[in-house]
Structure formats: C-alpha cells, structure tokens
Amino acid sequence: MSKYWATFGIDLLVEVDSATGRRNGLEHALRDAVREGRLAPGAQLPSTRALAAEIGLSRGTVSAAYDQLVTEGYLTARRGAGTSVAEVSPRRTGTPRTGGDAVAPRYNLRPGHPDVTTFPAAAWLRSTRRVLTTAPAAVHGYGEVRGVPELRAALAGYLGRTRGVLATPDQIVIASGYVQALALLAQVVGAGSRPVIAMEDPGFRFHRDVVRRAGPEVLPLPVDGRGARTDLLGGAPYDGTGAVVVTPANQFPTGVTLHPDRRHALADWARDSGGLIIEDDYDGEFRYDRQPVGALQGMAPDHVAYLGTASKTLGPGLRLAWMVVPPHLADPVTEAKLHADHHTENLGQLVLADLIATHAYDRHVRACRLRYRRRRDLLLSRLASTPGRPSEIEVPGLERPSGIEVQGPGRPSGIEVRGAAAGLHAMIGLLPAGPDEETVLRLAQARGLAVDGLADYWHNGGDNPQGIIVGYGTPPEHSYPAALESLAAVLASPPR
Ligand SMILES: Cc1ncc(COP(=O)(O)O)c(C=O)c1O
After folding, report:
1. Angle at which helices 22-35 and 59-72 pack, to 10 degrees?
2. Residue 9: what pLDDT?
C-alpha cells in the first residue's frame, strides 16, 4: 500500500492511502481531516496544481476529489478565492452534544458559560494601564504563592461587603480557576485521615473527576427541594467523610437554595466531626428575585473553605478564582499551590484588584445582573406562552423549591421550570406527564440546539428524575429569542 504525505501551507499532514484508488484516497484523507477538525472551517486548501505537484497526482485527480467534496458540502469553491473548508460541513449540523466535540451548535443553551461579550474591556484596559504605570518591575518576577497582596486585600473587603464572608487577606489563596482551588483542597483532604469527599447528587461530573484524580474517594450526597441532604451526614455511609462540597446559594444544576435547617445541619456536622465544608459560590453575584443569600462561610469561618471565581462575572478565560480557607488550612493549601504552579500570574491579579478597588467590578456585575435577569424573564415568559395544558408543579424525588415558577394556562404540560431565581441557568424538570429526556435531547440536537440533560449530572445511572439544564448566558443577544423558540418547540413534544 503506497501512502503519500502532503504538507500544506496550513501545517497539516494528510495521509493519502491509495489502496482503493488515488482519488478515493485523497477524498478520504480530506474528508477525515475536516470531520476530525484538523482542517478547520474556513481553512484554505492548496491550489489543485500545488497539491498535485506535492503528492505526485495528476491535477485532474486532485480537481475531481475537490469537486466531489464540494458536492458533499465539506469544501467550498469560489472563483478567484480558491477552495476552502466549508463553514458548516455535513458533520457539523446536528452535531452530538457530548464527547468533547468542539463544533459550535446553532443555539448554545448549555449551562456554565457567561456572556463573554459583556467583558468590560474598556475598564480592564484602564486598570491595566494604571497597574503597568505604577507597579514596580518586580511584578514580572515570581510573586507570592497565595497571590498578590493587593488582590487578597481587595477581595477580603469585597467578599465581606457583598457575600458576608469573614476573611483576612492571610486566609485568601488565589487559584487558576475554581477547578484548581478544588483540586488543591482535595489534595489536602486526601492527605488527611479521612480521604473521602461527599459531593452533591446531582452535581457537576467534571468536578467529581477532579476530586478523584486528586486522591479522595467521592460519595454521593442526595439533593432534594431543600438542597443537599446535609441532615444525612451524621450517619452511615458518611462516617469517614473528611469534606463536603456544596453549592448552597444556587445548587448546580437544580438551582435550589440550601434551606436554613440544612445550613445549620452542615455547620453542626463540621463542628462535631472536624470535617471541612467546601463552599462553591460560583455565581453568588447573580440573584434576581430572592434576597441575596449570604455565604455559608460567615456562619462557620473555621470550618468552611469558601471558593469564588471570576469565570461567571468576567469570563472563564481569565482563570482567576479565590478561596478563603480556615486559618489552619492556609499553610497546607499554600504548599499545594506552590507545588502546582508556584502561583497564579501576577498581572491579571493586579488588574482585578484595581477593578475591585475602583468599584468598576461592582458596576460591571450590576450591569450583568440586569442583563441576565432580562434573559431569565424572557425564558420564563416564552415557556409560559407555549401552547399546551397546565400541569402539576412537581418533580419526582425533589420537593418544590421556593422561588419563581412558571404557571398559567398556557404552559406546556409535563414540564416545570425550577431554579430560575438566580444564576445563569434554570432546570426544566420533565414530569412523567411530559416528554422524556432522551427525546428532548434528540429533538434539540436535530435543531442544532445544545442543552444539557440531567442524566449527565447524577452520580449513578438508574431511574433518576429527568430534566434538562438550560443556560441563558451564552447566546448572543440577537439570537437568544430564536434559541428560545427552538427550545419551546422541543418542549412541546408529546408525552413519553
Ligand atoms: C458548579 C460550578 N462551580 C464552579 C465553576 C467555575 O469553575 P472555574 O472557576 O474553574 O471556571 C463552574 C463553571 O462552570 C461551575 O459550574
């Protein structure tokens, strides 16, 4: 079998297997490269003459292969502009939601992402200029492992003022995203006498993997209409639990706020057992209908590691997060951070410190809150006006949370919108009278609409309640109404 390797100007190797004919081999190679994403949408291909010369085929053969792939929709040919990879190739429409496929859906309503177009570039630029004109050259050298003092001081004030967190700058460690903060804490817990961490079920699977990789075993902690079942922590199987990870302000993904009784139960467990509470306050800045819910950390500062992130307020690309740890954990966590990456980069930290100190951060968060609230309202009103019968408000296994619910005679039967009082996402519970999760996901995929199924969030398979998670942060403003139309159409599908 003879193979030809061609190096295009775009730095890509295409393996041409001529076992089934040279033209066929070239077509296969190019098709695979487009499908696998090695040839990106819009990438320019070499001219037929250049490619033919390089891989030793006739120009007619290359031309025929290109024509075939244009017909199939993989390539686009424009007079004078040559041949390039099509912006939307056959594989890219109706692409699967999962499996790390990086291809963008037409409407992205997956949770976990803010509207990054709101990034306050002008304010960031002003702060950067100030930092660079005033900071000594030493900021470009190695910095403090815990993070720059300016940011830790600014955060101690900001978190106390806005989230009720009790912190001194010494207790604050800056991390490269929540994910790193979680990994560092998991390492510390893993090195202790009780290397077991309980995590909410349902919860974010990726974070469970992060904890397991750091060492500890993960135990599921069920969630109901009052939030995580922290009342269970005193008994089996939680006896050997060293830490509990919770999202008390806005449970991810159900959107339930941890009930005051459950907060107390959790704080009591930590005091009695010496266990650690890891509080994930990933979107605590965004509340719409309820009174702001203060951080749990304020109740038990010696037992809670409070974790916040700039991923939802500014953008996940920054990889900036912070933890406020109990004093006895400051050294072990700092040690873990040192061995992970010395410290998070200095400049971004200083710029964020300046944004907070000048209140530009407050102004930005307030503007985002209004924007997301409008989007949340649009979601609720669009679903309320979808034709269908009214339905019961319940989700099996989950008590009804407080907060806004879509009601009214026009609401589609068999669905319930939950957890819409805060954050950037809502959960749509699929009741037995409604369509099933798999069908909804399949129909959504066919429309190029990306949402998450609740199935991805349970620790174990089986007969779990069904639902989808809808994030309203990502779509650009102009396409959001169309994304909601698409969602409403999918949800109006027949009962299971
Ligand atoms: C539950 C939860 N916590 C935390 C985060 C923030 O993670 P990071 O700071 O690593 O971007 C996310 C982001 O999606 C999240 O969903």
Report:
1. 40
2. 58
Query: How many Å apart are CA 128 and CA 122, to the nearest integer?
Result: 10
Q: Return the ∠ at Cα 73 (arms to 71 and 76), rounded to 5°.
A: 85
Fold annotation for 119-363: Aspartate Aminotransferase; domain 2 (3.40.640)
Q: pTM for this structure?
A: 0.78
Q: What is the pLDDT of residues 25-36, one digit of tens each?
A: 888 888 888 887
Q: What is the pLDDT of residues 52-106, one digit of tens each?
A: 888 888 999 999 999 888 877 788 888 888 888 887 645 433 333 444 444 578 9
179 lines ligand 1 (CB under 6 A): yes
Mutate to test the pocket of ligand 1, among 208, 256, 311, 314 (most ligand atoms within 8 A of CB): 311
CATH number of 3-92: 1.10.10.10
Q: For 437-441, what is the mean pLDDT? A: 93
- Locate 244 and state its tokens: 């509990």
Atom 6, ligand 1: residue with shortest CA distance: 178
Pocket test for ligand 1, best of 182, 184, 252 (most atoms within 8 A of CB): 252
CA-nearest residue, atom 7 of ligand 1:
178
Residue matched to tokens 């879509």: 406
Decide whether any atom of ligand 1 lies within 6 Å of the 457 Cβ.
no
Residue ranges of the chain that CATH labels 3.90.1150.10: 107-116+364-491
Atom 3 of ligand 1, nearest CA residue? 282
**Atom 14 in ligand 1: which residue has the minimum CA distance?**
112
What is the dotted CATH code of the domain comprising 107-116+364-491?
3.90.1150.10
Residue 69 Cα distances to 53, 236, 326, 467, angstroms: 20, 61, 61, 39
For the cut 80, the answer to whether the pLDDT of residue 194 exceeds it is yes
The single-letter code of the amino acid at 310 is A
